[in-house]
User: Fold this.
Amino acid sequence: SPGGGGAVAGARPRGASPVGATKSSMAASMAIPVSVRPASGRAPKSSRPVSRGRVTQRAAAPTKTARVMRSGRLMGPSAALAAPGDGLANSAHDFAGLGSPPTGLCTFCHTPHSAQATALLWNHTLSTNTFQWDDPTTTGGTSYPTFAGDTYKGPTAKCLSCHDGSVAIGDIGWWNGGAPPNPLVNTVVSGGFQIGGGGDMSGNHPVAMPYPLNGVASTYNGSTNAAPAVASGWQPDPQAAGIRLYVDDGAGNIAAGTVSGQTGIECTSCHDPHNGADVQDVFLLRGLLGGNSADYICAKCHSK
Assistant:
């Protein structure tokens, strides 16, 4: 399920329920562990090191920043981490104030000019990994996709450009009138928040995959829902529960919305990177991490 996975720094102890937890207590586990590279300049993406589960302090920061490293997380020195659903500011994806001059709230992902792609005005350098799973199909017979991080147009490629750990968080294409010669912040995502390292998506919930909207098989990103998969138990349309779905026009273009037979899921189906009003729990989830209510994140798509 999207809420599954290995141990993550700051996660709730096993068996504890998110129901009744305060937003402030849930916010504490939303920060992203990162590793900090030595200050040796920008390395080619293919050779950039990945450090798992630890933080090494830079020998010398290239700029004075408004943030510090705390317990392996990139956080502001004084502001509390935003609670689930309280917006992007002070959330785990708020990198405002980093670099010189200090960046804005949106800079590390978007830029108004000289974007790497018109779609989303994308600013962050994309991963060159090719992502794939270790099994050819799901248990229902739907083929897992293979996609390239720097050409696939779905939002999952944007998420993995940081979360696969191959590109520095601050490796962006444009800032303050030009292309920075080095990453503004030379850090990579590591530990439990690193997904798809080296392109290996084994053990992770499928994304960039078709969803059988209203019980109809979809073709999405080159994969088609197999008949046994369609019959295995799905919510007809999870959008009503806050899940975001996407459309593949058949030419590789991905957009938010639904079209019968062309609908799929991405990372952002279950996670809202902007910590918007649909977020209900830690990890920017559009549902609850645990429990058995209709708001449980897995139950929003799976009908069991």
